[in-house]
Amino acid sequence: MPARRITVGAKPSIPRAPSGSYDDTPDKLLQMLRDNDQGNCWCSDCGSGAKVEWVSINLAIILCIECSGIHRSLGTHISKVRSLTLDITSFTADIVELLMLVGNRVANMIWEAKLDASIKPGPQATREQRLRFITAKYVDRAYVEPISTTLSRYSTPDETLLAGIKKNEVQQVIYAMALKANPNATDKSRGTHAVFLALAAADPASPSAVGGQQPEPEKPVPFPVAEMLVQNGAEIPTTMPAFPLSRSAQLYVEQKRGRSVGISRDGIGSLRPSQNAGEKIQQDMESRLHKRMSAGGRLAKSPIPER
Q: What are its GO biological-process terms (predicted)?
């Protein structure tokens, strides 16, 4: 039996490049993820290096074709599976950033924290063995460390989630979600929805905005924490928060709602047409992502590095 690859705690092969460094490079997402962290070269759940071309966008993990089939069978409320070489329209800049920040190494530090490595299935595992393990891992959450004072200063998953969001720490957010935190949680002090907190933490509004109008961003700003929440069931509130959002955050809300949302002088949302500059930024974002992944099918043949 081939040796099982371990994807927990493996050090990334190269430092993660800033998002701006690959925005203008027509690279492929699969290769980007492999280059970013060699743990992504092997399946998160069985360690296989064959056909590792699938991803769960809400769990932010990379999978082989066999384990991806198990994930699909669990339902989209557990795992949203996409092909890294075929479903190119599924990957927004926010999802790309989320995958780059998380991936197999970080995710398994949480989802397999209590796992006895001897019970993890290998590449030759049967479908029944994979199903049993993956169900225990993501449905029963059997290998997630329970909340404790050593892992969190907060006593509940929701408090842990909100604290992680405010600090823009995606790993703490994933841990809270693994503990079944509510992605629609609200801050007790002002009743602000988790998604709005995530947007504000990632890209604070300009305090010097003229007339309450936020300046147009020079380039798209990704929101991986907000995207993690949305992919795991968070709903964008119909009422905007009591504080202003940056223009990039407004664009994110517009995209998710499928309509235009303006910010009035007092920070409360009002409907109006999108500004042309904002639309152009969104179009540029989509164009760059499409170029980056347009020939992704060839990446399936790229070599897997040896350890």
A: intra-Golgi vesicle-mediated transport
- Tell me if 83 sits within 8 A of 54, measured CB to CB: yes
Within its chain, how far is the Cα of 304 from the centroid? 24
12 inside domain? no
Count of other CB atoms within 10 angstroms of residue 279: 14
Domain CATH number, residue 126: 1.10.220.150
Domain that holds residue 236: 157-205+221-262
Query: Do residues 172 and 119 share a domain?
Result: no
Q: How far is CA 243 from CA 56, 201, 264, in A?
A: 33, 12, 11
Token couple for 77 = 């409320």
pTM comes to 0.76
Per-residue pLDDT tens, the chain, 307 aa: give them: 444 444 444 444 333 334 443 344 334 788 899 999 999 999 999 999 999 999 999 999 999 999 999 999 999 999 999 999 887 777 889 999 999 999 999 999 999 999 999 999 999 999 999 999 999 999 999 999 998 777 778 889 999 999 999 999 999 999 999 999 999 999 988 899 999 999 999 999 877 654 556 667 667 789 999 999 999 999 999 999 988 899 999 999 988 988 444 433 223 233 333 344 444 444 554 454 444 444 443 433 444 444 4
Task: Kindly state whether residues 237 and 188 are assigned to the same domain.
Answer: yes
